[in-house]
Specification:
Helices cover about 75% and strands about 5% of the residues. The protein is an alpha+beta fold. A 5-stranded mixed beta sheet has the order 2-4-5-7-6. A two-stranded antiparallel ribbon has the order 1-3.
Length: about 700
C-alpha cells in the first residue's frame, strides 16, 4: 500500500503521546500489523538499535530483510542489508559485512534504486575505513559525497563527511579531519540532529586527542557525557569514556585512565561492539604497561590483537603490535619484538596509516638500542624526530587553532571597519543590480506570457471556427442524406399501399364477378403488400428509436447457437414457399456478450435478405467460429449476388438502392443500415462478400464472453 509508512507514522505518534519509548511503541505496533507492514517496522527497530546494540541490530535487520524480500519491498531490503553490513563489521565478521554490502548493491543496481545504491556504496567505504584502508575508503566516499550533493541528500552528505574525516584522522591529516568534522557538525546542527551532534562532538574531541591538544579533547568528551542519556548506553557515550581515559593516559595519569577504561569496557560489551572492545583492550594494555603491570598488560594486548585480526582492523592492530613489541623488548624477547615491529611497519606502509608511525620508529630505536646496535637505533630516532617535525610544526598548529575558532564562533568577525563599509557598499550595488535584473526578467516574462496568451487565443479561435465549419458541413450532408432517405422511404411505402388500396378496391367492387382462383390470388397479393409495408414501417420505427437514443442496450451473456435457431424458426415457412433449404451448423459452446433483441433483429434481417435474393430450390448456410476473443457468424446464399458498386452502397443512408428479390420482393435497404447500427452498439463489425450470379455472404463479429 502506498500510504503504509504514513499510517505507521501516525500510529507511532499516538503511542508516543502516551509516554511510551519509541522502541516500545514499535514493538506494540508489530503485534497489530500484517507481515507487509512488519517489514517496515522491523527496519525502524533496526534503525533504533544502530548505535546501541549490535546483536539486536542484526536480529531486527534480518527480519526486515526476510519480509521485504518476500513482499518485494526493495528499498527496505537494501537498507536492512546495509544495516547488517554495518553490524557485521562492528561484530568483527568482515566476510559477512562484504557479502551483505554486495547483495545490497546488486539489488539497488538491478532495481534502479539510485538513492539506495549511493547508500550501499557509502557502507562499502565505511567497511574499507573500519578495516584500515583509508586510501580506498576515501576514493569511494568522495564519489558517494558527490552523489549526495547531486541528489540533495543531506543525511548522506553528513555520513560521508564524518567517515571521510575519520579516514583523514587515521592518516594523521588532522587539519583535514577537523575541517570535515566541523562541516559535518554545522550540517547536523542545521538539520537539528541531536544524536549526530553528540557523535560529531566526540569525533572533534578525538581529533584534538590525536593532535595532543588534550585539554580541548577533554572538554569535548565531557560535553558528550553531559548531554548523553546514560540510561540508554550509546557508542558515543562509551567512546567518550574510553577517550577520556586515553587523554589521562597521555597526561601520564594512568591509574585515573584505568578507571575510565574500566567503565568503557562493559558499556561496549553491552553494545556487542567487538570493534570498540578491541580498542578498550588496547588502552587497558597500554595503561597497565605504563604502571609496570606487565602480566596484565600482555593479557589485554593479546586479547586486543586477536580481536584486531578477527575484525581485520589494521590501524588498531598496528598500535597493539607496537605495545606488545615494547613488552617483548623489556622481557628480552627480541625475536618476537622484531617480528611484531616488522608486521606493524608493513601494515602502516601498505594501508598508508601514519598517525602512530612516530611511536613505531621510537620502538624500533628502543629495540636496536637494547640490542647494542646503536647505528640503527640512531637512524630510527632520526626518523622519529623528522616525522614529529613534519606533523607538529608551528604552521599546522596555527591552522588548527584557526579552525577551532571558526567552529566555536561559526563566522569570523570582520575587524576592519573600512573593509566592512566597502563590503556593505558592494552589497548595495550588487543588490541594486540584482533588483534591476529581476525587474527586467519579470517584465520580459510578462510580455512573453501576454504574447503566448494572445497567440493561444487566436489558435483556439481558429480551431473552434474550423470545428464549427466542419460540424456545419457534416450536418448539411446528414440533412441532405436524411431528406433523400425519407424521399426513398416515402416512395417505397407508396408502392405497397397503392397495391393495398388498388387490390382492396378491386375486390370490393368486383368480388361477385371474380372466380375463386382470382380471389385467392388477389388476397395473396394483398397479404404480400401488407407484410412488405409492415416490415418497412417496423424497420423505420426501430431506426428512429435508435437515432433518438431511446432504444437502450442491455448486454448479457447469451447462447448464440440458441439465438440463431430462434431467429430461423419464424422464417421457415417463407423458405418452404420458395423451396429453399436453411443449413445451420452453428454449435458454439462459448457465450457472447450482446443485447439479445438487437442481435436477433439483425439475424432475422440477414436471413430474410438471403431468402429474398435466393432462387427457388436454392440454399442458405449459417456457420460460426471463434477467433481472437471474437465469435464470427457467416450467412451465405447462392442467390443473385451483387456487383462491386452495389456492395459499396450497402450500409450507407440514402444510397442503398433497393434490388428486387427473385420473386420481385421489394425493400429500401433500411434493414441493413439497422444491422450496422445494432452490430456497432454491440462492439462488433459487419461486412459482405459477393459475386454477381454466385451469391452473397454476410459476416458479423461479436465479443466472446469470458467464462464464469
Amino acid at each position: 500500500m502506498k500510504h503504509r509508512p504514513l499510517l505507521i507514522f501516525f500510529l507511532l505518534l499516538t503511542q508516543f503521546c502516551f509516554g511510551q519509548s519509541k522502541t516500545d511503541s514499535l514493538q506494540s505496533l508489530l503485534k497489530k500489523s500484517d507481515e507487509k507492514n512488519q517489514a517496515y517496522l522491523y527496519f525502524l527497530l533496526a534503525k533504533e538499535m544502530l548505535y546501541k546494540d549490535t546483536h539486536q541490530l542484526i536480529a531486527y535487520s534480518k527480519k526486515a530483510d526476510s519480509l521485504a524480500e518476500h513482499y518485494q519491498i526493495d528499498s527496505i531490503q537494501v537498507n536492512a542489508l546495509n544495516y547488517l553490513s554495518y553490524a557485521a563489521i562492528n561484530a568483527g565478521r568482515l566476510d559477512e559485512a562484504i557479502a551483505y554490502n554486495k547483495k545490497a548493491t546488486d539489488i539497488s543496481e538491478s532495481k534502479n534504486l539510485n538513492n539506495e545504491k549511493a547508500l550501499s556504496n557509502y557502507y562499502r567505504g565505511y567497511i574499507l575505513y573500519a578495516t584500515g584502508q583509508p586510501d580506498s575508503s576515501l576514493k569511494v566516499l568522495n564519489q558517494v559525497y558527490e552523489k549526495g550533493m547531486q541528489f540533495k541528500d543531506l543525511s548522506l552528505q553528513l555520513k560521508c563527511l564524518n567517515t571521510i574525516a575519520a579516514n583523514y584522522l587515521t592518516q594523521g591529516k588532522y587539519k583535514d579531519a577537523l575541517e570535515k568534522f566541523t562541516r559535518a557538525y554545522h550540517l547536523a546542527d542545521s538539520l537539528v540532529m541531536k544524536d549526530k551532534l553528540i557523535n560529531l562532538s566526540l569525533n572533534i574531541g578525538t581529533t584534538f586527542l590525536y593532535n595532543e591538544e588534550l585539554d580541548k579533547a577533554l572538554e569535548y568528551f565531557e560535553k558528550v557525557i553531559s548531554i548523553s542519556d546514560t540510561a540508554n548506553v550509546t557508542i558515543a557515550y562509551a567512546s567518550a569514556l574510553n577517550n577520556i581515559g586515553a587523554c589521562y593516559s597521555r597526561m601520564g595519569k594512568h591509574k585515573k585512565a584505568l578507571t575510565y577504561f574500566d567503565k568503557a569496557l562493559p558499556a561496549y560489551i553491552k553494545l556487542n561492539n567487538n570493534y570498540q572492545i578491541a580498542q578498550v583492550y588496547t588502552n587497558l594494555g597500554q595503561s597497565n604497561y605504563f604502571i609496570d603491570n606487565v602480566e596484565l598488560a600482555s593479557k589485554y594486548l593479546k586479547n586486543a590483537i586477536n580481536l584486531n585480526r578477527k575484525n581485520q582492523s589494521q590501524n588498531q592492530l598496528i598500535v597493539n603490535l607496537i605495545l606488545l613489541a615494547k613488552l617483548n623488548i623489556e622481557d628480552s624477547n627480541f625475536r618476537e619484538a622484531k617480528y611484531n615491529l616488522d608486521e606493524a611497519l608493513g601494515l602502516a606502509n601498505e594501508y598508508n596509516i601514519n598517525y602512530n608511525k612516530g611511536d613505531l620508529y621510537q620502538t624500533y630505536s628502543y629495540y636496536y638500542s637494547e640490542r647494542k646496535q646503536f647505528e640503527q637505533a640512531l637512524e630510527y630516532k632520526q626518523k622519529e624526530l623528522n616525522l614529529k617535525d613534519s606533523i607538529f610544526n608551528e604552521s599546522r598548529q596555527q591552522q588548527i587553532s584557526e579552525l577551532q575558532t571558526k567552529f566555536e564562533t561559526k563566522q569570523k568577525q570582520i575587524e576592519n571597519e573600512s573593509l566592512r563599509k566597502d563590503i556593505s557598499l558592494n552589497r548595495l550595488q550588487i543588490e541594486k543590480q540584482n533588483q534591476v535584473r529581476d525587474l527586467l526578467i519579470v517584465i520580459t516574462l510578462i510580455v512573453i506570457g501576454l504574447i503566448f496568451i494572445l497567440l493561444n487565443r487566436a489558435r483556439l479561435k481558429k480551431k473552434s471556427h474550423q470545428i464549427i465549419e466542419a460540424q456545419k458541413s457534416e450536418l448539411e450532408i446528414l440533412n441532405k442524406t436524411k431528406d433523400k432517405f425519407f424521399s426513398i422511404i416515402a416512395h417505397d411505402l407508396r408502392s405497397p399501399f397503392n397495391a393495398l388500396i388498388g387490390l382492396s378496391n378491386l375486390l370490393s367492387s368486383s368480388y361477385d364477378h371474380l372466380s375463386d382462383e382470382e380471389r385467392k390470388n388477389f388476397i395473396h397479393d394483398l397479404n404480400t403488400a401488407s407484410e412488405s409495408a409492415f416490415s418497412l414501417l417496423d424497420n423505420l420505427l426501430t431506426w428512429a428509436r435508435v437515432q433518438q437514443d431511446s432504444l437502450k442496450i442491455q448486454k448479457q451473456k447469451e447462447d448464440i447457437s440458441l439465438l440463431i435457431k430462434e431467429s430461423i424458426e419464424p422464417l421457415e415457412a417463407t423458405a418452404k414457399l420458395k423451396n429453399i433449404s436453411i443449413e445451420n451448423t452453428v454449435n458454439l459452446k462459448s457465450k457472447v456478450l450482446i443485447d439479445m433483441f438487437m442481435i436477433k433483429t439483425l439475424m432475422v434481417n440477414l436471413i430474410n435478405n438471403a431468402l429474398k435474393f435466393t432462387n427457388e430450390g436454392g440454399s442458405i448456410k449459417i456457420s460460426g467460429e471463434e477467433k481472437g476473443g471474437k465469435t464470427i457468424i457467416s450467412i451465405s446464399d447462392n442467390g443473385v449476388g451483387m456487383s462491386q458498386e452495389q456492395m459499396n452502397q450497402l450500409f450507407k443512408l440514402g444510397k442503398n438502392k433497393s434490388t428486387l428479390g427473385t420473386n420481385n420482393e421489394t425493400g429500401t435497404g433500411l434493414g441493413l443500415i439497422l444491422c450496422q447500427e445494432f452490430i456497432e452498439k454491440n462492439d462488433g463489425q459487419i461486412w459482405v462478400e459477393s459475386k454477381e450470379g454466385e451469391g452473397s455472404t454476410f459476416r458479423f463479429s461479436l465479443v466472446t464472453a469470458s467464462p464464469d
